[in-house]
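Recap from last week: sequence in, structure out.
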Amino acid sequence: MPEPSRTDAGATLSKKQEFPAAGTGDFASR
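Predicted structure tokens:
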């Protein structure tokens, strides 16, 4: 497991790529 920050960023990017609409909406809503 690399740095937590790096993992978080990677996970967020992956999620956004997998669910761009859902991810963007979720982030924008919050």
